[in-house]
Automatic annotation (TrEMBL):
Source species: Lysobacter capsici AZ78
Protein name as catalogued: Cell division protein FtsX
Membrane topology according to the record: Multi-pass membrane protein
Transmembrane segments: 56-79, 202-222, 250-272, 301-324
InterPro entries listed in its UniProt record: ABC3_permease_C (IPR003838), FtsX (IPR004513), FtsX_ECD (IPR040690), FtsX_proteobact-type (IPR047590)
Domain FtsX extracellular: 94-177
GO biological process, one term: cell division
């Protein structure tokens, strides 16, 4: 649709409004679903076109949103890896049950089988006094000194790996008649669980704060786009277009910003994961562990993209709805 000025030259004072008006006019003879689908497709393509027409401004908005999303996501991934690493360190959870010196080896074997039958016990390793003495000679460097000692003063040892709460299991082992000494360190686990709970709460707080920041960034960007198209919106309102019809292109614009920001945030975290994986693997190997960093799998990655798109959609919806309510009130 074009207009003719007094000089006779064609002009188009409101680029982009023609297509919106055509859809609004053609909606009557078409089926409702066809018109609805046509406008959704056009809104999506038009939103992508607006992003491509202003690449630097779009990249700036997407970059700010991506950093705001990457920070809490990175903290969340780090906490998941720490929790997975803590669950893999079974030796730190093992309980050493030293039997009384008078307990015979046959009774120690029977006791080991009884403990393996318990549901709260994962595994039981029996170490005889001879094995304990051989390990002590090998690791302490006091082989000659130990050889001078007559007999074997070491008792039988049961190394118990718990399935659940090691503190409750250690307390029950202390009640055994054959038990002489029970050694375990549950304090580190309790402290680690406390730090993990704190880190998880911190990740949620950061996600809320930075998510609000991303919401405001999208809202401000969409607000500027609305201001540049207020004449088009006014014409559509005069033609009787509904608020949903007018709002839809801006919603898709916000969703495109959010989706692109989520993809960039995942790319940043992937780069960080690959840059840290090799030195961390080497460090873990030096401690005898095969721990490796684990990034986002396909399911969580798709959820992050969907959440980022929904965040952009919400920001655009809040700003557009506020503008349309103001214009409706002014017309009234």
């Amino acid at each position: 649709m074009s207009s003719v000025n007094p000089s006779g030259a064609n002009s188009d004072p409101m680029p982009g409004v023609d297509r919106e008006i055509d859809i609004a006019i053609d909606a009557a003879p078409q089926s409702r679903f066809g018109a609805w689908l046509d406008h959704h497709l056009y809104s999506l393509v038009a939103s992508l076109g607006r992003l491509l027409r202003k690449p630097w401004a779009a990249l700036l908005t997407i970059g700010v949103m991506a950093v705001a999303l990457a920070l809490p996501l990175g903290l969340w991934a780090a906490l998941n890896n720490v929790e997975r690493f803590a669950g893999d360190v079974q030796r730190s959870r093992q309980i050493s049950l030293f039997l009384k010196p008078e307990v015979k080896l046959e009774r120690a074997r029977v006791l080991a089988e009884e403990l393996r039958a318990r549901p709260e016990v994962g595994a039981v390793d029996l170490r005889t006094p001879e094995q304990g003495l051989a390990d002590l000679r090998e690791k302490s460097g006091l082989g000659d000194t130990l050889s001078a000692i007559e007999g074997n003063p070491l008792p039988s040892l049961l190394v118990v790996t718990p399935k659940g709460d090691e503190l409750a299991l250690a307390q029950s082992l202390e009640q055994l008649a054959e038990a002489d000494l029970v050694q375990h360190d549950a304090g580190w686990r309790q402290r680690l669980d406390g730090w993990l709970r704190f880190g998880s709460r911190l990740a949620w707080v950061l996600a809320a704060m930075l998510g609000l920041g991303a919401l405001l960034v999208v809202g401000n960007t969409v607000r500027l786009d609305i201001q540049s198209r207020r004449d088009e919106i006014g014409v559509l309102q005069l033609l009787g277009a509904t608020d949903g019809f007018i709002r839809r292109p801006f919603l898709y614009l916000g969703a495109c910003y959010g989706l692109a920001a989520g993809a960039v945030a995942l790319a940043l975290l992937t780069v960080a994961d690959h840059s840290l994986r090799e030195p961390l693997t080497a460090l873990a190997l030096s401690y005898g562990s095969h721990f490796q960093l684990q990034g986002f799998e396909l399911g969580p990655a798709l959820a992050i993209l969907a959440g980022a798109a929904a965040l952009g959609w919400l920001g655009a919806g809040l700003v557009t709805g506020h503008y349309l309510r103001q214009t409706r009130a002014g017309q009234g």
